[in-house]
Design a protein that fits this description.
Length: 293
């Protein structure tokens, strides 16, 4: 997992993001725009006045970047997608995020909100050339029927998020170099998996161990490549749900399988160890002492 935080005009500017980087933080998620007010462009929404300044300082400090738009579902999804794109730019390298707040329950039915989200995400993803992440809390995710989105889940005060997600907003606190308290987050994978969602690396990813398995998504429009060291790399519409990459395994991974709905998978070690991710359930293992072929 990678340490992250999100920031907006509420925290202002003038931060020393090099301190955050030195303390182990990897990713800064910045509010770019929201659905409130009217901008001078006539699009529905307003622009975060600190976005450009903070992003420039974060990049200079070597942090990975994310940008988010706070949705107002009473207004046009298309207008708000164009507003967000006008702020971040068509060549933006970083996570693109739609922020779905709990007031959405008062702005439409689950079907209407899901359709709005799909339109916004489709427009932004097509413009930037990489997937959009959708932020919401665990209640909202359930209220919407647990839609198939690239999830950033807000779920504080618990040892792990309630649902499989790419990003987990796990609490609030202070970050070295940032002048005011912020929301704290964790990217639930490694740096390579993060880059598949930022547009920085979409193919030809260098790996540290031999690929041993490939798993198709349920749509056939994506797949996951699994390596012997437990690394999992996602392409197309495959959603990262976790891996053993970066851990010390008793034996190499030798095979993998996905669940019928595509929202989970198992990794199998040469020693019979089983690692479950997403909605895949761990049911036991066998124990082989080796030697390994």
């Amino acid at each position: 997992m990678l340490l992250a935080f999100d920031i907006s005009a509420f925290q202002g500017t003038g931060h020393d993001f090099a301190q955050a980087k030195a303390a182990g933080y990897v990713l800064a998620l910045n509010r770019a725009s929201d659905g409130l007010g009217i901008t001078t462009t006539g699009l529905s929404g307003s622009v975060d006045t600190c976005f450009a300044t903070n992003v420039a300082a974060e990049r200079a400090a070597g942090l990975e970047i994310g940008a988010y738009h706070v949705a107002d579902f009473s207004k046009s999804a298309l207008d708000q997608a164009h507003l967000f794109l006008s702020v971040v730019g068509a060549s933006f390298i970083g996570l693109a995020v739609l922020d779905v707040e709990p007031y959405a329950t008062k702005q439409g039915t689950p079907a209407q909100i899901n359709a709005w989200i799909a339109q916004f995400n489709t427009v932004v993803s097509a413009a930037l050339g990489h997937p959009v992440i959708t932020y919401m809390d665990a209640y909202m995710y359930g209220w919407l029927g647990k839609p198939k989105v690239n999830l950033w889940e807000a779920d504080s005060g618990v040892p792990q998020p309630a649902d499989p997600c790419l990003l987990w907003q796990c609490g609030q606190g202070d970050v070295p170099g940032v002048g005011n308290p912020v929301d704290l987050d964790k990217w639930m994978g490694d740096l390579l998996s993060l880059h598949t969602y930022t547009g920085e690396i979409m193919q030809n990813i260098p790996v540290n161990a031999q690929p041993v398995a490939i798993m198709s998504t349920s749509t056939g429009k994506g797949y996951r490549i699994v390596c012997a060291d437990g690394g999992v790399f996602d392409f197309g519409d495959a959603q990262f749900l976790g891996s053993e990459g970066g851990t010390t395994l008793a034996a190499p991974i030798t095979a993998a399988a996905t669940t019928p709905d595509g929202n989970g998978y198992w990794l199998l070690g040469k020693d019979g160890g089983v690692f479950a991710f997403g909605d895949a359930e761990y049911l036991g293992r066998v124990d082989f002492k080796g030697p390994y072929a």
